[in-house]
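As a warm-up, study this chain.
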Amino acid sequence: MKIPKVIILLGPSGSGKGTQAELLQKKFGLDYVGSGILLRARQKINDFSGRKVGEVIGRGDFAPTAVIFSLWVSTWEEIKNRPEFKGFVIDGSPRKILEAQLIDQTLEWYEWDKYLSVFLIDVSRQEASRRLLERRREDDTPEAINNRLDLFEREVMPVIEYYDKSKRLTKVNGEQSVEDVHRDILRAIG
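Now compare it with the structure written out below.
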């Protein structure tokens, strides 16, 4: 069996994390764990949590750690039980220090911690905002975009510092072409 890959892609909304996650998924046959996709799927279930997740997404806020973590763990358990595990890419999480610590503990539990690579796709706030306004998903209102970018600066920057201090972070210039960002990530993966 080949050595699996566990890749975390961090960066503000609009940095191109989803695009890079898709490219890595295709290149290596990885599973995709995207918090946004998991949350959007959860909001479609018409129960209390589904409605609350919808409200949170609509405001551009982060879902509580307990909610997002329960979605990750059920996804990872499913992945772990597959006969051939190639790895997975996490798009846009962790968003808080507690989430980073929980991911570390969970990766250790599943015996995946030694396969971890963490990337920051680095783009300016102005570039992220411009890209988000261009794509205009339903939840990409100017207010929600500003709120998400504020939350990134306040909540996710400490996570980036957490990974940087432990020498597990690779910064990639996200303001170059999609192909060049992908090339830089592949170089770092080795």
